[in-house]
Amino acid sequence: MTMEKVSVIIPCYNVEKYVEECLDSVINQTIGIDNMEIIMVDDCSEDGTWKILERYEKQYPDHIILVKSEKNGRQGAARNIGLEYVSGDYISFVDADDYISRDMYEILRNVIRETESDVVEFRKFSDSLSCKGNQNDYSFEVFDIKGERARKQLLLSNDVMGESCTRKLYRYTFFQEAGVRFAEGVAYEEPLFTYPLKLRVNRIARVEGEFYFYRQNEEGTTLNYMSNPSTILDHLNVQWQLLDYIRKFPDFDIYREETEMHFIHAFFVEPFYFLSLRGMIMSVNLFRYMCRVVKMVLPDYKDNIYVQYHFFEKEAHIIDLISELDTMDDEKAAVRLEEICREIRGL
């Protein structure tokens, strides 16, 4: 059997404390480094990250590609740069402050081959003790996306083909045909890459196993973005870009209601959860901005069948706020928004 190669893209920014553990976990994979290419993109680090990356490149010159970005474009831009260098049969993304189990690529590659899937995804673990990996201790299931009904269900679901790109191994030919890229210069860059794939994927394998250790890096850019309420605007802008991008797909009209419902949920509902679960309250100004955009982009949003029948039942009262905008003064809106945020936090 031809030993197909896995291309691993690792964006790096100020990760001198963690990047060695990350790289060692990739280099020491059971498939062997000869079956991998590791593409490291330094996003203008200001610490000792670059020197560490240079050392690894010199040690493994035939298997490591080291790229230095000309300007800081955040993870989306760094991943896009890495994609330009891919020559493998499969693509994987690993964040430089995380690490993976030794047999991750052996298992994922075996599953994607056996099932002839476009993508194989897995669960992400945040407990280092559970990230051991055992080749005999995993199972998988296959999802065939055949027909409009199956694809509509996929477009409305977060259980399969979720937002995280680091939880997946992609077949390179599938990625090429899809032609997707990450949003650049923003936080929450992944949806522009991952969600459109739901309109193109035909078979997905989902593995239940312990492969990936996600580190809560207090100094990392992601955590800093998420703790800064202003970055919620990045999330909103990416969702707006995503809807505009999908509207250009030739089969958009078939899946209009599903993709527009996704926009309503991601653009209007999710920010309440992002802010609330970080101990913050939705501001009146942000709330009014979100309402205006939904009404402008989807003036007939109330006619969407999923809105009418409360598909997202638990969030229906949040979606209802859009139509209540004109009846609320700022004081009333502030009280209502605080009630919802406290409700989400379970207070």
Q: What is the gist of this entry?
A:
The protein is of the alpha/beta class and 347 residues long. It has helices at residues 19-27, 49-59, 74-83, 104-115, 147-155, 172-178, 191-194, 221-226, 232-246, 256-276, 284-297, 305-308, 316-319, 321-324, 330-345; strands at residues 6-12, 36-42, 64-68, 90-93, 99-100, 119-122, 139-144, 168-171, 203-208, 212-213.
Overall mean pLDDT stands at 90
Taken as a percent bin, the fraction of beta residues is 5-15%
- Ranges with pLDDT <50 over ≥5 residues? none
Q: Which of globular, elongated, flat, extended, rod-shaped describes the shape?
A: globular
Number of helices: 15
Which sequence of SSEs, written as H and E, runs from N to C?
Answer: EHEHEHEEHEEHEHHEEHHHHHHHH
For this structure, the quaternary state is single chain
Number of strands: 10
Main β sheet profile: 8 strands, mixed
Structural class: alpha/beta
Q: What is the rounded distance between the termini?
A: 57 Å
Fraction of residues in H or I helices? 40-55%
Strands in their spatial order, largest beta sheet: 3-2-1-4-8-6-9-7
Task: Write up what this structure looks like.
With 347 residues, the protein is of the alpha/beta class. It contains 15 helices and ten strands. It has an eight-stranded mixed sheet with strand order 3-2-1-4-8-6-9-7, sandwiched between helices. The protein has a two-stranded antiparallel ribbon with strand order 5-10. The chain is globular, with a radius of gyration of 21 Å.
